[in-house]
Amino acid sequence: MKLVFLGPPGVGKGTYAKILVRKYGIPHISTGDIFREEIARGTPLGRKVKEYVERGLLVPDEIVIEIVRQRLSREDCRRGFILDGFPRTIEQARALENIVSIDAAVHFYAPMEVVIDRISGRLVCPRCGAIYHVKYRPPKVPGICDVCGAKLVRRPDDRPEVARRRYEIYYKTMKPVIEYYRSKGLLIEVDASRESAEEVVEELERELRRRGVIS
Ligand code: AMP
C-alpha cells in the first residue's frame, strides 16, 4: 500500500497514519519529522535545513527529493509506506514518480471550522510527544500526560488565527499538487470531518479495496 497523504495541518493525517501503520505494518514517513529530528541531532543535513524549517519556508526541492529517495529505498518500504508532507510542489510530485509508483494520493478534507476546532484544543507533551485534545482525547488527569506525567502545553502555532492562516496557505500552495493527482486518476478524497478516526480510515480502506490496492 503505497500512499501519499494530503490535507491541511490539523485534519488528522497523523492519527489516520498511526491506525494504518498499526494495521498494515508499513512505515509512516513524514518529511517534516525527518527534518526536525536531523535538526535536533545537529547533523550536516539538519544544519542545512534548519533555517528553512524554522522560518516555515520550503526546503529546496533537490534536498527533499534526495532525502525521500534514500528513505524509500530502505527495506521497510518494500511492502508499502505512507508519505506525509511530501510532495509539496509539482516538481516533487514528478520526482516521486521517477522513484516509485504510488497506489493513491489521499486527500483528507474537512471544513476550516472543524480543523481549527481540532487544532485549537490540541495539547502536546513536551517530554514524550504524546498528543491530546481537550474535547476529543482528554488526558486522564487534566493537563498531565498519561504516558510520562509531564505537564501538557499548547503549541504557539496552534492558536486559531494561526491555524486559519495555515489552512488557507495549505490550499493556495497545494491545489496544483491535488489537481496533479486528480488528473492522473490517483486521487482519493476522504471526508475527515467525522469525529471517529477509525471511521475515516474505514472509508479510505473501502476505496482502496474498490481499487484493488488492498484485498
Ligand atoms: P511539516 O511538519 O510537514 O509542516 O514540515 C515542517 C517543515 O519542514 C516545513 O515548514 C518545511 O520547512 C519543511 N518541509 C517538510 N516537508 C517538505 C517538503 N516536501 N518540501 C519542502 N520543505 C518541506
Architecture (CATH level 2) name: 3-Layer(aba) Sandwich
Distance between the termini: 11 Å
Strand order of the largest sheet: 2-3-1-4-7
Largest sheet: 5 strands, parallel
Helix count from the secondary structure assignment: 8
Shape category: globular
Percent of residues in beta strands: 5-15%
- The CATH superfamily label reads P-loop containing nucleotide triphosphate hydrolases
Using only CA atoms, what is the Rg?
17 Å
Give average pLDDT, whole number. 95
Ranges where pLDDT stays below 50 over 5 or more residues in a row are: none
The tally of domains stands at 1
Bound molecules: adenosine monophosphate
According to DSSP, the number of beta strands is 7
CATH domain class name: Alpha Beta
Helical content (DSSP H or I, runs of 4+): 40-55%
Output the structural class.
Answer: alpha/beta
The CATH topology comes to Rossmann fold
Produce a short descriptive summary:
With 215 residues, the protein is α/β, with parallel strands linked by helices. It contains 8 helices and 7 strands, in the order E-H-E-H-H-H-E-H-E-H-E-E-H-E-H.
Give a structural overview.
The strands form 2 sheets. The protein has a 5-stranded parallel sheet with strand order 2-3-1-4-7, sandwiched between helices. Strands 5-6 form a two-stranded antiparallel ribbon. The protein has one domain: P-loop containing nucleotide triphosphate hydrolases (Rossmann fold, 3-Layer(aba) Sandwich), CATH 3.40.50. The protein has 8 helices and 7 strands, in the order E-H-E-H-H-H-E-H-E-H-E-E-H-E-H. The chain has helices spanning 13-24, 31-41, 44-54, 61-72, 90-99, 112-120, 160-183, 197-210, and strands spanning 2-6, 28-30, 81-84, 104-109, 122-124, 131-133, 187-191. With 215 residues, the chain is an alpha/beta fold. Strand 5 and strand 6 form a beta hairpin. The protein binds adenosine monophosphate. Residues 31-32, 35, 52-53, 56-59, 64, 85-86, 88, 92 line the site of adenosine monophosphate.
